[in-house]
Amino acid sequence: MSERPCLEINNLSATVNHVGERVLRSVSLSVYRGEVHGLVGESGAGKSMIGKAVAGLLPRAVKIIEGSITLEGISLDDLDEKGRRHFLGETCAVIPQDPLTSLNPCRRIEPQITDRLIKTLGWKKTKARSRALELLEEVHIREPKRVLRAYPHELSGGMRQRILIASAFATEPKLIIADEPTTALDVTVQKQILKLIKEMEERHGTAMLFVTHDMGVVAKICKNVSVLYAGKVVEQTDVMSLFSGKNNHPYADALIEATPRYDKPDHSLVPVDVSINQILASEILEADKIWKGVGND
Amino acid sequence: MTNQPLCAVSSLHFSVPDLNHKPLFGSAPILEILKNINLEIPRGSVMGIVGESGSGKSTLGRCLVRLNSPSEGKIVFDGKDIAFCGEDEIRPLRKNLQMIFQDPMSSLNPRRKIGQIVASALVACGESRAQAKDKALFALDHVGLSRDFANRYPHQLSGGQRQRVGIARAIALEPKFIVADEIVSGLDVSNQAQIIVLLEKLVAELDLTLAFISHDLSIVRRLCDRVAVMRAGEIVEQESSDNIFKNPSNEYTKALLDAAPLPEITPGWI
User: Fold this and answer.
1) CB B17 within 8 A of CB B27
2) Do B263 and A190 touch (CB under 8 A)?
3) Which member of A182, A249, B77, B152 lies 3.0 to 4.6 Å from A235 by CB, making a disulfide possible if both were Cys?
């Protein structure tokens, strides 16, 4: 493709405190404009870690030891701390998992959306407010004026998640990292929120990194997908071929089989087989051997 | 006696005063959480209770084990109406009415070891300490946790393992009836699958009767014999599992089924 990818991650590895095993094992992926890239895996697979590495939100103990992250053609390594923060603040936003803990309970909704506009983009307060109203309308919140004055506890889970989506899109970022945005919601609200994310993503032409453990959600919203196990990408493909069920890594198929579905109860909620875990373990061992060999040269 | 359902709920109401709209003087208006619930859970069956958040499914679950006291109606458990009996009367029955909670981290005491957590329920029911310890280890075995887990603390366990401890605590007492309140919604898919398979095994082995509360119809399908769909405090549809998934009659059930994302490409779903 001649077009430049919005986000390009190349050979990214990370460890905890420079010792022991890698938590990310040579991850490479690229996301283009207007495309949703799914990161799927079990808990502990490092899927959120990739999102955090891009947004510069890694916990202190986790160190990136090799590889590069390029966002909109600019390598994040080339920027100093301050420049990186400013650049990320403008071009990248996060939709967090838990809408309850991600909003400050002591502040009204309005400043929580407009803060970024005022601080990062240097907007005037009145302009920021009208933009916030516009955004709330865009995410289909009724009575946006009342909601701007409300505190988080006055709103339902779905409403709060809508507000976080609105504030993620506020600065017109080039890349959005959605970290399990629907896990805390029930199925009916989940559908509404997925619909909303898709709609916003198409309208704004944003690239999106979508972290989830649910293959059902992947099938509905993503274009491409990386399946992760222990920080290693074991399968990277587009969703069409993933769900056609041919030439997949057995682990990807096992995750699809583990997903609950009401129409085929015998082919749902099947735990991942031990033999597949063995295959994965040996693959990881192999990858680590090669990596160490390269490192010693 | 054995043909009778283990738990039969008839015209159950649950209401609380709505303190958000309490006038300065006078009593607060009444907010009805559960309206006229009728439900029968046969012995040895698994009953699914499904609905969106706020539909009252957890409140109903808590009423079934009498953690909430209903305001009207009957809950006949094992031939005895427990809807309004006092704490002294219900205490001997508690052994048979167990609950597994949604969030395993907040339902396990962070300062106590797993073995103590499971054994304390047994001690409270009058077992000696040594006996309680044996039974606790046995229960941990049953849910697939090895014996060294008894000496660990909850924070040292993964989410799936913690939920297994919750299950072990419930089955350690060999209860007749367990309410499982959204026990897999905090887990990832492969852990979900493992827990559901474990529950299937336990129901068959221990002759349990289970009320399984969930918002996801896809999970309920695999496990439950009958399903009750709740909306805004009422049961809108109650059917055998096969029927409800093949020919849902209620519009709301159809909407719930439609909202469950299946792992396959369906253009136009969103």
Assistant:
1) yes
2) no
3) A249
Nearest CA to A149 out of A114, A184, A124 is that of A114
Token duo for residue A17: 């405190």
The model's confidence at residue A269, banded by pLDDT at 50, 70 and 90, is confident
Domain A7-296 fold = Rossmann fold (3.40.50)
Residues of chain A contacting residue B269, judged by C-beta atoms under 8 Å apart:
220
Give the whole-angstrom CA distance, residue A176 versus residue A4: 17
CB atoms within 10 A of CB A264: 13
Q: What is the pTM of this model?
A: 0.87
Task: Yes or no: say if A104 and A163 are a contact pair by the CB < 8 Å rule.
Answer: no
DSSP state, residue B53 = T
Strands B177-181 and A19-31, bridge-based pairing:
unpaired
Domains of chain B (ranges plus CATH)?
Answer: 1-96+218-257 (3.40.50.300)
Residues of B contacting chain A (CB within 8 angstroms)? 52-54, 158-159, 187-194, 196-197, 215-222, 245, 255-266, 269-270
Cα–Cα distances in angstroms (integers) from residue A8 to residues A4, A47, A71, A223, B245, in the given order = 9, 16, 6, 16, 44
Tens digit of pLDDT for each residue in A69-85? 999 999 998 899 889 98
Alpha-carbon distance A172 to B200, whole Å? 48
Tokens matching residue A3:
């077009």
Locate the domains of chain A by residue range. Answer: 7-296
Beta strands in chain A (DSSP E): 7-16, 19-31, 36-40, 62-71, 74-75, 92-95, 175-179, 207-212, 224-229, 232-238
Among B220, B262, B269, pick the best mutation site for testing chain A contact (most A Cβ within 10 A).
Answer: B262
* Integer CA distances (angstroms), B217 to A265, B4, B63, B64, B149, in order: 11, 27, 22, 21, 33
pLDDT tens readout for residues B178-237? 999 989 888 888 888 999 999 999 998 988 999 999 988 888 988 999 999 999 999 999
Contact present, B199 and B214 (Cβ < 8 Å): no
How much of chain B, in percent, has pLDDT values that exceed 90? 59
pLDDT digits (tens, 9 = 90+) for B27-84: 989 999 999 999 999 999 999 999 888 889 999 999 999 999 999 999 999 888 999 9
- Residues on chain B touching A245 (C-beta within 8 angstroms): none
C-alpha R_g of chain B: 19
Q: Which residue has the tokens 């039969």?
A: B8
Farthest CA pair distance, chain B? 61
Q: What is the DSSP string of A255-288?
A: HHHHS--SS-GGGSSPPPPHHHHHHHHHHHHHHH
The Cα of B192 is separated from the nearest Cα of chain A by a number of Å equal to 7
